[in-house]
Amino acid sequence: MPVGQPPVPARPHLPLNALRSFEAAARRLSFTQAGEELGVSQVAISRQVKALEQWLGTPLFIRGTREVRLTPEGARLLPPVRQALDLLALAAGQVSRRERRNVLSIQAYTTFAQRWLIPRLTRFHERHPDIEVRLTASVSPVDFEHQDVDAAVRSGDGSGWPGLETDFLTPIALLPVASSTLLKRRKGKLPAEALSGMTLLHSLARPNDWEIWLQANGAEQVVDSRKGLKFESSALAYEAALQGSGVAMGIQVLVEGYLTSGALVSPFGQAVRRPGGYYLVRPRHRPVSTAMRRFRDWILAELGAAETGG
């Protein structure tokens, strides 16, 4: 021991495997599901939890016929155990990455990933070459408990996401887009009623956008918002619009590239801003890594520059 430093108090020999089993079982309120998560049997989880209860001298679960519930002692123990395991995982990950890149797993909607994020990731890589971004695309809700995801881009009003930290990224403004060849001789701004007789292109992931836009522009009685071609995602609807198949309902931040290049035009009515917007969400209980902090700062700066024209 170095001279002048106080002695380090002896730590009890904590049963780490039992604490890990307890955390999984307490989080899921199921020994069976905890076993599936950790790759062991339900019996093994039960044995580990029992050993921890004996070590602590107090019950942690109330065991019923078909369910288990935490005792007050178990509920008090869960948050610090979860935090400690997260810190251990983060520390181990940082050490194990000394000779390799930091890995950051991001999930985004398919269209957001294709039309906004992927074209800009090169800039993030140039600024932070030590961080490897692993991007996945999905329209399904993210499950941070079961998926290897650090953060996700989701849309909403910022509420209804318990346990998640949220950063507002950008608003959602709806505007119809079409190829200039489809419109042929039609020039300048066109009223919403001009969509009557045209083929509407729908995204099944956003089924109400056409109805919302037509109502806001006073054309719901003239244009049938239900008719047209339907696609799994907005990305496919945009592609159909590029091919001249009809008019797609665009999200402004996602179609700006098309509008700037002239591949698509938006002469119809007025854009309609929806409540809320896109958010970057991540689990509140996880420590924020340096890679996560840098990605958050970068994406907020990118969207801020886009909104100000910078």
From TrEMBL:
Task: Show the Gene3D superfamilies listed in the entry.
Answer: Periplasmic binding protein-like II, Winged helix-like DNA-binding domain superfamily/Winged helix DNA-binding domain
Alphabetically list the UniProt keywords. DNA-binding, Transcription, Transcription regulation
> Pfam families under this entry?
HTH_1, LysR_substrate
Q: Name the InterPro entries on file.
A: LysR-type_TF_proteobact-type, LysR_HTH_N, LysR_subst-bd, WH-like_DNA-bd_sf, WH_DNA-bd_sf
- Entry's SUPFAM superfamilies? Periplasmic binding protein-like II, Winged helix' DNA-binding domain
Describe the location of the HTH lysR-type domain by residue ranges. Answer: 14-71
Family statement: Belongs to the LysR transcriptional regulatory family.
> Which PANTHER family does UniProt cross-reference here?
HTH-TYPE TRANSCRIPTIONAL REGULATOR (PTHR30537), HTH-TYPE TRANSCRIPTIONAL REGULATOR TRPI (PTHR30537:SF74)
Name recorded for this polypeptide:
LysR substrate-binding domain-containing protein
Give the organism the record lists: Paracraurococcus lichenis
